[in-house]
Design brief:
The protein is of the alpha/beta class. The chain has 2 domains: 126 residues, Aspartate Aminotransferase, domain 1; 246 residues, Type I PLP-dependent aspartate aminotransferase-like (Major domain) (Aspartate Aminotransferase, domain 2, 3-Layer(aba) Sandwich), CATH 3.40.640.10. The protein is built from 11 helices and 14 strands. Strands 2-10-9-8-7-3-4 form a 7-stranded mixed β-sheet, with helices on both faces. Helix 3 runs parallel beside helix 4 and helix 9 crosses helix 11. The longest helix is centred in the last third of the chain and has 41 residues. It is globular. The termini are far apart. Bound molecules: pyridoxal-5'-phosphate. Pyridoxal-5'-phosphate binds next to helix 3.
């Protein structure tokens, strides 16, 4: 009989994973990117070059750069942030992490305790919400419009918390191509957020994971760049531009906070070979790579919108994406996307149900997030057609002539 671990599990080991059973044929789930756009040849050359010229540095934890990660990559990130986001920082204010998820964990570990409260966009990245749940942190959702988090509602939420004698630990925001709504917050609103943060004396945690993926190539200055009193913590990643499986993200914070974050990164450094390869590949190639990537993603976004229009017609509402890899879709109220999720999966179509991507899950069961980054255009077309069939079977939506009313 196998040894029984169940009775030994700690209080944090409450959830149970299922073994990986492969990807479904129509995969609209997760933050995965387009496989053909991974710059395989150039990365292969970079691997060969760095391993031959700098490979012996792998003998040391942290290479020659210490605990914050490979210095040449941190220097590249500083140059890139200056050029693209108007952020002026030094390599000492950058920490390389195992994806921006580790950056998020470190910020949370540094600032949050059970019972704390934070504010965030009411539709949000599920990975952010589950992390806060796991720490026992309460989150207040602030509704968005097409320009991102609404500042009148943020003001109201802050004022209500203040009246209740509660001070939030931070405002978490994804201002540039918000996940899942795809909104981009204009500069004026970013400045308003800073003004509110100042008035209530709280920090802002800016997650700029998709910042390089606006289809126009233009983006507003980062909130970090607009801040003048060091109240913003920032994270970014190469997951959405180069490859998520590399697990290279970064955290940017003023040294007064960074100095408290560093002792909490207890993994002896994130993967060094990936950092060395990116430091070799990115300086001469990043801009061109992103430039090539944007039309590919835009074509996929267009294909998804077209397929939804064709197969769901007026039964769906969405804002046409201006960047990124997601579409946030609203269906008629009688559609329960938790149920649709299972029925669609049985037919090989994976979607993200709205309940998991919102603070008020029960009010958003008729919404879903579709990732167009991963499936090919052909699979986008076929997958949406299949999804419409399943949705019709389950809910009588989309309306088709001869439609019977269904629950
Ligand atoms: C808003 C947001 N933040 C962070 C992450 C995590 O990305 P990474 O692969 O850099 O850990 C994601 C991934 O989808 C995301 O959507």
């Amino acid at each position: 009989m196998a040894f029984e671990f169940k009775s030994l599990l700690s209080a944090t080991a409450t959830t149970k994973a299922e073994p990986f059973s492969g990807y479904p044929p129509y995969h609209f789930v997760g933050g995965n990117i387009d496989e053909p756009t991974v710059p395989v040849e150039a990365l292969a050359n970079a691997v060969g070059k760095v391993i031959r010229t700098e490979g012996h540095n792998l003998a040391k934890y942290g290479l020659n750069s210490g605990p914050q990660g490979h210095l040449p990559l941190r220097k590249f990130i500083c140059d890139c942030l200056k050029k693209r986001s108007e952020i002026a920082v030094k390599p000492e204010e950058v920490l390389l992490t195992s994806g921006s998820l580790q950056a998020m964990d470190l910020v949370n570990q540094t600032l949050l305790s059970e019972g704390d409260v934070v504010l965030l966009e009411a539709a949000n990245y599920a990975g952010t919400l589950t992390r806060l749940d796991a720490i026992g942190v309460e989150y207040v959702g602030v509704e968005l419009d097409s320009d991102g988090m609404r500042m009148d509602l943020l003001d109201r939420a802050l004022s209500e918390l203040a009246k209740a004698g509660r001070k939030p630990k931070y405002v978490y925001t994804i201002p540039t191509i918000q996940n899942p709504t795809g909104s981009v917050m204009p500069v004026e609103r970013r400045l308003e957020m800073l003004t509110l943060a100042k008035a209530y004396n709280i920090p802002i945690f800016e997650d700029d994971c998709y910042a390089d993926l606006t289809f126009s190539g233009e983006r507003p200055a980062a909130i970090y760049a607009l801040d003048n009193d060091q109240r913003v913590v920032y994270c970014g990643t190469f997951s959405k531009t180069i490859a998520p499986a590399l697990r290279v993200g970064y955290l940017v914070a003023p040294w007064q906070l960074m100095s408290h974050i560093l002792p909490l990164k207890t993994d002896a450094g994130s993967g060094a070979l990936e950092q060395m390869v990116l430091a070799e590949y990115l300086p001469g190639n990043f801009d061109d790579h992103v430039c090539d990537l944007l039309p590919v993603l835009k074509a996929k976004a267009d294909a998804l919108c077209l397929a939804l229009d064709e197969h769901f017609g007026a039964s769906v509402a969405y804002e046409k994406p201006v960047g990124g890899i997601y579409l946030w879709v609203t269906l008629p109220e009688n559609v329960d996307t938790d149920r649709l999720f299972q029925a669609a999966l049985d037919q090989g179509v994976a979607i993200n149900p709205g309940s998991q991507w919102t603070v008020d899950g029960s009010a958003n069961k008729h919404r879903m997030r579709l990732c167009f980054g991963h499936p090919s255009i052909d699979n986008i077309r076929k997958g949406v057609a299949k999804l419409a069939d399943v949705c019709f079977e389950e809910f009588g939506v989309p309306f088709r002539s001869g439609n019977i009313e269904r629950g």
